[in-house]
Amino acid sequence: MKPSGFAYHRPSTVAEAVDVLAEVSPAGKVLAGGQSLVPMLNMRLAAPAHLVDVNRLTELAYVRVDDDGGRRTVVVGALARHTDVEHDAAAHAALPLLREALRTVAHPTIRNRGTTVGSIAHADPSGEMGAVLALLGGTVELRSARGTRTVAAAEFTTGPMETSAAPDELVTSVAFPVPEGRTGTAWTELARRNGDYAVCGVGVLVRLGDDHRVVAARAVYVSMGPVPTVLDLTEPVAGQDPRADDDGWAAAGRLAAWRLDPDDDIHATAGYRRQLAAVLTERALRTAARRATEVAV
Amino acid sequence: MSEQLYEVTLLVNGVHRSATVPARRLLSDFLRHDLELTGTHVGCEHGVCGACTVLVGGRPIRSCLQFAVTVDGEEVTTVEGCTRPDGELGPVQQAFRDCHGLQCGFCTPGFVTTITAYLHENPEPTADEAREAIAGNLCRCTGYQNIVASVLRAAQLRTGSTEAAAEAAP
C-alpha cells in the first residue's frame, strides 16, 4: 500500500525544525531514517497530517565521545545512522556494547538508513538501542521552540511506542554514559531469523571491585515487557570472583526469569520467553564478567 | 485539494534524472513509475523482503521505505547500474547467471544491489560471511544455496577483473 497524503516540511536547521513542529503541533511527526515510520505509513497504520523531515539537519549527524573530568559519554546526534554508530572507532573503543547490540538491529540495509536516536524515540519494546540506553542510565536531549531539556532514559520511555516527548519536541541527541572501573558488558538475543525482532534479548553490565569480586550486576531486556526492563541481579553473584567461582550466574538467570513478566504472542509463549531469559542472562553475565576481568584499570 | 508537488532530481546510474512528484512518492515508485526504471522490484512494501534494495550514496537501502523527496540530490544505483561500463553483465549479475542464483528472478535486483555494495566493503568473503550478507533479502525459489555460491563467484569475478584491469593499465 501507499502512504496517504501529508504536508511535507524539510527544515535545514534545528531551529527551523522546532519552529515547524511548534506550528503544526500536535499534528506533526518527525521523519528521520523512516525504517519504522514508513512501514506504518505504507500500511496506513499511521497517517500524520504533517511530516517534518529532519534528513537535512546535518548538524545532528555526529557521534562523539565526551570527556568531562574522566566521566566519559558517547553522544549520538539524531541524524547518525545506526551504521555510523556501529562503525565509529572512538565510540567502539569507549563502549563496545554499542557495536555488539547494533549488530542485532535488523539488517545492514536497514541500519544504513535507520537512526539510533529515531529507534529510541520510536520506543518499540523490541528496540535494542533504547534498552542499551536504559541499562547504562543514559539521557535523552529534547529541543522545542520552548527550550531544551534532558530526560533520563527511564523517564523517557513510558510505554510501548510511547515516550514523554511532547508533540512539538525533537529528540536531538542521546548520551550513553561509559561505565567506569572494572566493568564488562555484553549483549545477546535470540530471534527466529537473523536480523528479525528478538524473541528475547538481554544486555548486561557486571562491575568488579579491585579484588576482582563482583560488586554490581544488572541486566536489561527487550521483547519481555512494554518497556525495556532493567533488573538488579547483584545479589546472587555478589562477592563472586569470575576467575574462580561459578555458581551464581545460573541463579542470577533464574532470578531474572522469575522477575520478568513477558506476554504470549504468535512467536513464543511467556513461559518460553522466561526460559530464554534465564539461559541468555546466565550466558551474558559470564561473558560480561570475563570481559570485566580483562579491563585494564 | 490537490497535493503539493516537488521537483526531485537524482543522479541515477550516472545520469541526472528529474520528475515532479508529491512528497508521499516512495523512492521505489519514483524509480519505477516516474523514471520507468522497472528493474527495481517491489515485493512487500514494508521493508522486509529486500527486493527493492538500491544504493544511495553507495549504501544499500530499502527504496520502499524512503520518500523520493528525502533523497533529492543524491546518487542512486539500481540493478540497471550494476553492469560493466560497456553495458555487459557486471560481476554480480554474471555470477548469478553462472551459478543459477535465480529462478523466477523477482528478488534478484535486490540481491544484486546488496551484494554489489557488500563486495565493495568485503571483497573476499567466506561462505558464512556471504550467507550473512544476504540475510536481509528473501528468495522463495532457490533455497539460497546458489545465491551464496553466486556471492563467492562474484567475488572471484571482481578480483579477476581488478587484476585484469591492473595488468591492462600502463
Q: What would you say this structure looks like, in words?
A:
The complex is a heterodimer of chains A (297) and B (170). With 297 residues, chain A is an alpha+beta fold. In chain A, 33% of the residues lie in helices and 28% in strands. Chain A has helices spanning 14-24, 37-42, 82-86, 89-94, 96-102, 108-111, 116-122, 128-136, 153-156, 234-237, 248-259, 270-293, and strands at residues 7-9, 28-31, 50-53, 63-68, 71-77, 139-144, 147-152, 157-159, 162-163, 170-177, 182-191, 198-208, 214-222, 229-232. In chain A, strands 4-5-10-6-7 form a five-stranded antiparallel beta sheet. In chain A, strands 11-12-13-14 form a four-stranded antiparallel beta sheet, sandwiched between helices. In chain A, strands 1-3-2 form a three-stranded parallel beta sheet, covered by helices on one side. In chain A, strand 13 and strand 14 (229-232) form a beta hairpin. In chain A, helix 7 packs across helix 8 and helix 11 runs antiparallel to helix 12 (270-293). The longest helix of chain A is centred in the C-terminal third of the chain and has 24 residues, at 270-293. Chain B is of the alpha+beta class and 170 residues long. Chain B has five helices and five strands, in the order ββαβββαααα. Chain B is globular and about 50 Å long. The A-B interface holds A 1-8, 10, 31, 34-35, 38-39, 41-43, 51, 53, 55, 83, 106-110, 112-113, 193-195 and B 3-4, 6, 22-24, 26, 29, 45-47, 50, 53, 59-62, 64-67, 69-70, 114, 118, 132-133, 135-136. Chain B: InterPro entries: 2Fe-2S-bd, 2Fe-2S-bd_dom_sf, 2Fe-2S_ferredoxin-like_sf, 2Fe-2S_ferredoxin-type, 2Fe2S_fd_BS, Beta-grasp_dom_sf, Diverse_Oxidoreductases.
